[in-house]
Fold:
Amino acid sequence: MLLLAYCAGLRRGELARLDLGDVDLQDGTITIRQTKFFKTRILPLPDSVVVELRAYIDARRRAGGSRGARSGLFWHERGDGHYTPEMITWLLADGSKSSDLGVAKKLFISWNADTGTAIPGRHSVC
Structure:
């Protein structure tokens, strides 16, 4: 989630609205709907993000996640399977505080909870 937010420059609401069908692993793109200015955009993704998304989607399916195109990309079992923007903020902020060498530390970035955006550091994986 953090890697996608950082590399694609997504806002927390955009992350929360992503559906499984918005990801095209073959073309290496993601469709962002209902952006800040109410437009839809298709973004190319770096190979590193496509690899991680493929692994995540495979794990999600093995865990019993819905395979429907309108199912939330970042899935959970309650409601419609979409996280709220507030939960996205909490997940990313909590994950970046972990003591292990997680994605946030590898990227040398932090999550700005006020604006819901990733703040790049010195290094990039995108």
